[in-house]
Automatic annotation (TrEMBL):
It catalyses: phosphoethanolamine + S-adenosyl-L-methionine = N-methylethanolamine phosphate + S-adenosyl-L-homocysteine + H(+). It comes from Roseovarius azorensis. GO terms for molecular function: phosphoethanolamine N-methyltransferase activity. Pfam families: Methyltransf_25 (PF13649). This is Phosphoethanolamine N-methyltransferase. Keywords: Methyltransferase, Transferase. Signal peptide: none annotated. Pathway: Lipid metabolism; Phospholipid metabolism. PANTHER family: PHOSPHOETHANOLAMINE METHYLTRANSFERASE, PHOSPHOETHANOLAMINE METHYLTRANSFERASE ISOFORM X1.
Length: 259
């Protein structure tokens, strides 16, 4: 493990404890299904950007019928966890996990039917380049379906939002729905659709904060480090208000490459 990994083994263990085995983002299989609303994966070749520890890649094959998923990520611990999960699921012939460097994807033009991503593009500052790369690697008629954590505007964050982003310490590069839409349109996508998920996640996050800080706190501290849990509680206490105001606004983003 590199000392610079943001999602190191202890962080992976905590997030999976909160969100489910192999999930480093909220919502589980139901939320993945909502991201894929109207996008049929059966028999399709799928790119999963920021695959994390791999439960979603497994889900895309097992539950959604993808022929093959290529999961890419930039950090060793998550790639190792994802590869182990894929092998344990007996799906090594249908899922490959590749460690990549940030920047252009190491794939030929028109390699995939669907580009998927769940809550990972937040780590990629250049949304325009990302949209152009997704468009390039999609086959004509291919679909883009992602979830990501956005913020309501591209100006200076409010003091509450800046405080929250500082606590996350995860290199967040949040952008507005308008910037995402312009990036998708500019890349050439059609039927671009953004769905605001902050009303849903505001409720979820409040329940997560209650789980971490309520009667179960001692159990969390026993399974993870007490100081680490205290920091997570502080982070969630900062996150819930900015979800409620809507400044922190997770969205689903979909688009279609013209046939
Ligand atoms: C919040 S996790 C989500 C992981 C997974 N999609 C899930 O929902 O469980 C974000 C992931 O994005 C990865 N990531 C960060 N920068 C990236 C980049 N430039 N390209 C691809 N993945 C990246 C991180 O290493 C991490 O695994």
């Amino acid at each position: 493990m590199s000392g610079e990994d943001l999602y190191d083994d202890s962080h992976i263990a905590f997030l999976e404890d909160l969100w489910g085995e192999g999930f480093l983002s909220p919502g589980g299989p139901e939320e993945v299904a909502r991201v894929l609303d109207g996008v049929d994966l059966r028999g399709k070749y799928v790119l999963d950007i920021g695959c994390g520890s791999g439960a979603i890649a497994v889900l895309l094959v097992r539950e959604h019928g993808a022929a093959h998923v290529t999961g890419i990520d930039v950090e060793d611990p998550v790639c190792a966890a994802a590869r182990a999960r894929v092998a344990a699921a007996g799906l090594s012939d249908r899922i490959t996990v590749e460690k990549v460097v940030p920047g252009p994807f190491p794939f030929r033009d028109q390699s995939f039917d669907v580009v998927f991503s769940k809550d990972s593009i937040i780590h990629i500052p250049d949304k325009e380049a990302l949209a152009a790369e997704a468009f390039r690697v999609l086959k004509p008629g291919g679909r883009f379906a992602a979830s990501d954590w956005l913020r309501s505007h591209d100006g200076a964050p409010s003091a509450e939002m800046a405080h929250y982003i500082r606590l996350e310490a995860l290199d967040f590069a949040m952008a507005s729905p308008e910037r995402y839409r312009a990036a998708m349109d500019g890349a050439g996508f059609r039927d671009v659709e953004l769905v605001n998920r902050s009303p849903w996640y505001a409720g979820e996050a409040a329940a997560e904060l209650q789980e971490l800080s309520g009667p179960n706190r001692a159990d969390w501290e026993a399974r993870h480090d007490a100081a680490f849990i205290a920091h997570q509680i502080e982070t969630w206490q900062a996150m819930v208000p900015v979800l409620r105001t809507g400044e922190h606004c997770p969205h689903h983003i979909r688009g279609r490459k013209p046939a």
